[in-house]
Amino acid sequence: METFFASCPRGLEHLLAEDLRLAGAGELTQIFGGVHFRADWSACYRANLQSRIATRILWRVAQGSYVKEDDIYRLALDTPWPQWFLPQQTIRVDVTAVKSPLKSVDFVTLRIKDAVCDRFRRELGSRPSVDTRQPEVRIQGFIGRDECTLYLDTSGAPLYQRGFRQKTVDAPLKENLAAGILRLSGWQPGVVLLDPMCGSGTFLLEAAQIALGRAPGTGRDFAFQRLRHFDADLWQGLLAGARAGEHSAADGGIFGGDISPAAVRAALANLDRAGLLPVVRLSTGDLLDIEAPAGHGVMVSNLPYGERVSDHEQLARFYPLLGSALKRRFAGWNCYLISADTRLPKLVRLTPSKKTPLFNGALECRLYEFRMVAGSNRTLG
């Protein structure tokens, strides 16, 4: 059994823990922004392949106390890196510091890189090169107040990169945050889903994959495949099992739209590239004018929000119209709107039944739940 840490968007840690348990992990400890756990390599591979919530899965390879930078150098020098990858492979080192007394994270990063290269030179006479853009091996350091932990990244590109989205529009959601919001909404395949402000289609892409039973990692590769102890037979078995669990769905009851024709074209292109276009119905239209596609269902949307004064003024005019449209046309629907604008509930004149703090990257947001029962939504003065 090995020790790992999986990161995720803040606010989704409990959902990540559910994913990890399903993958076969144990001894889970949730912290802000992720989950520590113990697992064998089969569970690590499976978590990378199947978790819709994880951002990265890191394998802990060393841990020790420190007082100064040289202590971290010695910890990294004593770590047997040549057991796990080759000097011909490229590396990147990243360091995160929380409450560390050391003055320069960049200097600590350099010392860890030097130690890795020195260990290779000592054992093999050659050292890996650094590639900050597309490294084959990523080394992650975490330094706290008096302890340093070193990890090898088993994921590579962030896990929210499913391998097919090319076209984006302004302020896209990360795929794992979108998947988390779908989970928080309680949506299940067979229930009508609508994203009326779909942008490049992130919610639609995630929902369509769920409707087809497609594991999110089947279209990409992972950093663990480049480690020396990679078990190709085990991986191929897990991948074949995941693909065997997929099924077809001619019409998933998933609807998307946007007032911007360019956004709809981007969503169409992304869905088509992913082979998911048959599952989703897309149209161009204004949320304030469209009719609900069914008598009841789940609406999810990443609402626009801005930092300029004009944006705030425009949104202050838009929100009351949005509230009216939801009351008039979406009675019987559960609506989940994510926004960083804390004025939203008051301005839409609806009382949210739930407010869930979430982070879209570094931006603190709220997921507002509005249960649109005809005639029962109390307006706010």
Summarize the structure.
This protein is an alpha/beta fold.
Care to describe what's here?
With 381 residues, the protein is an alpha/beta fold. It folds into two domains: 2-153, 2-Layer Sandwich (VC0802-like); 175-213 and 246-372, Vaccinia Virus protein VP39 (Rossmann fold). It has helices spanning 13-23, 41-50, 69-77, 105-124, 175-185, 202-212, 232-244, 261-273, 309-329, 344-348, and strands at residues 2-7, 26-31, 34-39, 56-65, 91-97, 137-143, 147-153, 193-195, 254-258, 280-284, 297-302, 333-339, 354-360, 363-372. The strands form two sheets. It has a seven-stranded mixed β-sheet with strand order 2-3-1-4-7-6-5. A seven-stranded mixed β-sheet has the order 10-9-8-11-12-14-13, with helices on one face. Strand 9, helix 8 and strand 10 (280-284) form a beta-alpha-beta unit. It starts with a strand and ends in a 9-residue tail after the last strand. The relative contact order is 0.11. Mean pLDDT is 93; it is low at 376-381.
SSE blueprint:
Layout (H helix, E strand, L loop, with lengths): L1 E6 L5 H11 L2 E6 L2 E6 L1 H10 L5 E10 L3 H9 L13 E7 L7 H20 L12 E7 L3 E7 L21 H11 L7 E3 L6 H11 L19 H13 L9 E5 L2 H13 L6 E5 L12 E6 L6 H21 L3 E7 L4 H5 L5 E7 L2 E10 L9
Parallel strand pairs: 5-6, 8-9, 8-11, 9-10, 11-12
Antiparallel strand pairs: 1-3, 1-4, 2-3, 4-7, 6-7, 12-14, 13-14
